[in-house]
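Table S5 (text form). Sequence records supplied for joint modeling of the three-component complex.
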Amino acid sequence: MKRIYAKEEYCLGCKLCEVYCVTSHSASKDIIKAHKLESITPRLIIESSDNLSFALQCRHCDEADCTRACITGAMQKDEETGVVNYDEERCVGCWTCIMACSFGVIRREQAGKKVIAKCDLCIEEEAPACVTNCPNDALVLAERAEEEGVQ
Amino acid sequence: MSLNYRCPEFLVERVESNCIECQACERQCANEVHFYDQDFEKMRAKDENCVNCHRCVVICPTNAIGIRKHPSEYKENHNWTAGMINNIQKQAESGGVLLSGMGNPTKKKIYWDHLLLNASQVTNPSIDPLREPMELKTFLGRKPSKLEFDEEEQIKDLPPQLELSAPIMFGAMSFGSISINACKSLARAASEVGIIYNTGEGGLHEDLRQYGENTMVQVASGRFGVNQDYLEAGAGIEIKIGQGAKPGIGGHLPGEKVGPEVSKTRMIPEGTDALSPAPHHDIYSIEDLRQLIYALKEATDYQKPVSVKISAVHNSAAIASGIATAGADIITIDGYRGGTGAAPTMIRDNVGIPIELALAAVDDRLREEGLRNQVSLVVSGSVRNSADVVKAIALGADAVYIASAALISLGCHMCQSCYTGKCNWGIATQEPELVKRLNPEVGFERAKNLIEGWAHEIKEMLGGMGINALESLRGNRLMLRGIDLTDRELEILGVKLAGE
Amino acid sequence: MSYLIIGNSAAGIGAVEGIREVDTEGEITLISDEPYHSYSRPLISYYLAGKVEEEGMKYRPDDFYEQHQVKTKLGKKVVSVNEAEQQVTLESGEQLEYQQLLLATGGTPFIPPIKEADKKNIYTFIKLDEAKEIASKVEELQLERAVILGAGLIGLKAAEALRQLGVEVTVIELANQVLSAILDEEAAALVQQHLEEQGIEFIFEDTIEEFLGIAEVEGVKLKSGKELRSQLAIIAVGVRPNVELATGTEIEIEQGIVVNQKQQTNIEGIYAAGDVCQGPNPLQNENTVVPIWPNAYNQGLIAGKNMAGESAEYQQNFPRNSIGFFGLSMITAGLIKPEDDSYELLISKCEESKCYQKIVLKDNQIVGFIRLNDVDRAGILTGLLKEGADISKVKSELLSDSFGYISFDEEWRQAKISE
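The corresponding structure-token record, covering 1070 residues in total, follows.
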């Protein structure tokens, strides 16, 4: 399946991926409203130090520890799309998936609801918002890392 | 000094209703203009640090930022302009030479804008380049005075030529003055469209060797990075005598830009200043130049055309004639609006002459002396669009170099602060965190698009003139007319006034 | 192939999914003594507190059994296993044959000897039925006071739920701290403080000696002699593997049913998974019972795959828990109270914000950790623990806020991401 890969050597650390992720997952889908009126937790993690940065999203693992650890059955891997996603209605915010995910890419939703926030590959859009809006093409959606020349 | 006497040049305006405090502007400004104020919970700006490079303007996802000229004005004075006063304040602070980046910005006549192109009507029908073939192919190098063919009908003894798909090359910019990612972008673009880029006096980085067929390697007064391998790696060799932005003076890449890669490529110790002397210390005459030209030809088995690049100065025509007789295959003339990574402001703004006039004069002189076929003529020094290219060809050039335009395609917004080394676009910098802002995958595509776009436009203009091969336009000054020019200017340019 | 699964919780469901990954044809029969569609046991405290409805407790969608072609016998109890004949007998006398059997019978609450324990309104807190009864009692009795014996995960989740319903709760614990299985004393003190701030009372190093009252509980008498008034009691001192079905057979039992990494018992064709089994623990080099939900599912999954003929091994039979009380979250894993000084401890603490981090290292490998009130990205530590990764290069950053993939070298990072 296609996953998002970061080309670290071209990541600016501008965090626009986060901005557009929030917008894409907002109710209004309006960048300004999403940030000023809503409280959305980004579905990705940006790690940065002085001269290195990259965005990290759910790897949508084939053998996903989070789905196997989930106590409610809310977290599932979609067999067709390969996307690991969760049912907001059934998530109780026990954070067992946070315990299980060795990438550390599942976050606690800050919007007050006691649920998690994680990358859904913007599966309903043409491409993930972070990839589309990366100003330096440092995020790619690719079948495999090697194809896009990521070392 | 306790008080900075200078007024800020720019004012950062923020539309607060749009600002989402994402801080992208802060992260992207190497000049530390933007900052988030915890107490006000707002983004603020230190206007005095702003160089107006537009990085923040472009990166801001909500278009919340605008940069304006600072509204504070000096009392109106055509003599003591704000620029003049600011320069004096700067020097009063520093005691140093005023430095500038990019080309001469002063308000002097731009001759391209006083030249107009012809178009066919009725008697000589125009050609539609979308329907009919249109040839832009350009060969640079010495052309024989007569052609002889062998048994297989191939031209015998043709001197080495550079083949270009369009009459445009990327001008000399060294790795050091620009980033490796900028070099990679231009080299790959050149290779994909079939033109040439020029290494400048920066040596040839390993990663660029693959583009050898599209590389002009430069030999300048510092001889940085020059060895046998280097000379053989490119398609042609250029001896740089002068640069339009700073005729008569050498170059200086400060030690802080000489990191491990630049050091390796230039073959100089890490952290040392790379000083290119003003003259070549082995060239004091045309005869000396001839020696170097032939030394390089000898070293490369007469397989590479050798170009000699000079600044456009008062006696360019005589010098060009000397260069032609010295055995150069290509003469490159760089006009006084040509760009630079850093030049003393006074030199940049006051030394040299416009390329349009130098070109016309050189072409005339070479023709008069029967030397024109022995050399190709390349001009540079602010070719800003495809119409400038067409006008240059009509005035007598074989091809042009573009450098500022190429950098603009990569993101340069002409803030003219290259010499600070803090280029927010990842172009004129060696800071790794800035260099990575220019993804060559993106950069090459943009530079390539620019050349392709210009090539289309050149074809349109040629077609309009009823010409289907660029060769037919070379030196065809009848296709030009002047406006707002004096008789003397028209005479030097060799063009008639519009209406004549 | 015919498969028989006894148990309808995480391990049983895991087995169904494991079998179906490999074998889409074989006949699967699943038996459970509970009459319900598979539900999430950890949610019963959420149910009691009114945070989820019964419908929301379903662990899998309504059509799960149909989708996976599973024949269910729910509300039916298996009374014996005949491993020689490869058949089981139900309470009804019905006999079922199998080729592959999974024992996923879970655990039974341990009830310590307490006098007068036959009174009404004394519960354990493992099954949905109990949660339902307690919920109705809370209403029926207008419950004001309850005691809970045991300050473990189950006891405290019950305490939280009751407290959220407005009940005065006292927790009695034999040890000197809360959550002694998953927290060290320092972290436990912070959790205790937090729970006390929410109005829960604790009595440590004591236990219930006798229930007071006539037919219904009216109070408890503690070993210390202290007496407490209480209309309801929950006993939550631990769960023992429910090995009843294996008892008297050739199946090897220690504390639980002994299995290897494939979840196989010593008898061919018989597997065990979940709280009932005792499997190889990679951290302790011995077989232990690790009764946690993710383990149960994973063990079931592995068992299922092996039952269907694919070879799979389970490497993660170590404790790990994510739990929270009144908004205070914690994730802990592995060994958190090392027995000797051959372990290295990294600790950071901020008492004011009730944050506490502890990482237990042995030979530069993470063997355990506690993350209290700062659980973000804790899974990275779980991953390193699971892998037995050498963390010497990142040791200095393990406790830092910025610890993450960036702390590792590019090669390691890219290998992980590209996996």
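Note: Chain B has two domains: 10-96, 115-497.
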